[in-house]
Amino acid sequence: MKKLLLALLAASACVGAQSATYNLDPLHTHVIFEIDHIISTNRGRFDRKEGAVEFDPQAQKGRVDLTVDMLSINTGVAPFNKQLQGKDFFNVEQFPTAKFTADDFVFSGDKVVEVNGNLTLVGKTNPVKLKALRFTCFENKMLKREVCGGDFEATITRSQWGMVWGIDRGFPDNLRLLIQVEGIKQ
Question: Organism's domain of life (predicted)?
Answer without folding.
Answer: Bacteria
